[in-house]
Amino acid sequence: MRPSLRTSLFLAPATAWLLCMLVLPLVVVLVFSFGTRGAAGGYVPALSLENYANLGARWAAFQNTLVLAPLGTLTCLIIAWPLAYFLAIKADPRWRTLLLILVIVPFWTSILIRSYAWIQILGGNGLPSLIAELGMGKPRLINTPFAVMVGIVYGYLPLMVFPIYVALEKLDKKLLEASSDLGSPPFRTFLQVSLPLSLSGVATGSMLVFILLMGEFLIPQILGGGKVFFVGNALVDLFLQSRNWPFGAAVAATLVLVMLVTVTLYLRAMKRLSGGRDDVALM
Prior knowledge:
- Residues 62-268 form the ABC transmembrane type-1 domain.
- It comes from Pseudogemmobacter lacusdianii.
- It is a multi-pass membrane protein.
- The chain is mainly alpha-helical.
- The chain has helices spanning 3-32, 50-53, 59-90, 93-104, 111-122, 127-133, 145-169, 173-181, 186-197, 199-214, 218-223, 231-241, 245-273.
- Helix 10 (199-214) runs antiparallel to helix 13.
- The longest helix is centred in the first third of the chain and has 32 residues, at 59-90.
């Protein structure tokens, strides 16, 4: 059997799976986006650009998503990198496994339950009451972008920690010692040694968190209280409540396009920072 034919046979099952489970649903969504809403909802075949022309009606959802998703990703990165560095470089090997388990412990509980727990913490009888007792007023924390950001960081932080931890675990500690012996201060060692060698983990973790946040709807729904809408919330409303499937498909197609462009530009930037390495986003 020719090598090319053998390779094609090996790839055929995976290719068929991707076509049926990934490409075909996207094609269906794209076709629906050019249709019109029926009298009782649903989809009526047509060839119209009206749904794309009305995207401005959901601009608030796009705006919240395009602001809070990158901001949440950046916040997770800022918190996760020192934590991953401590776990990979500084932590006692005898306790490392236990510490890693503690990082993923929140994942053992449904995100729904964890989000409701934050309602109690950020609600009127939680942190605001404590702040009021300290004589600093009683701020409103729940049903705000701040509450959504707290839920995002709490829910997605482990997805950022582990890729960075895996990248830093491969780091040769002798490089850090050599940098210190040559007189480099810790911050310069971070910029010239630790950060460049962990870019693969940073890229992977950032993509995991960012892509999931772009489609997030549960955390904004619960902690935003219907006042902080993401595109995911708009899609739930369009498909399940107003049953405007063509408009929902147009919103979904636009979201996919925005994610595709953003991720492509991000990977190119990371590849440039890593000196042209093709494996910058691979673990």
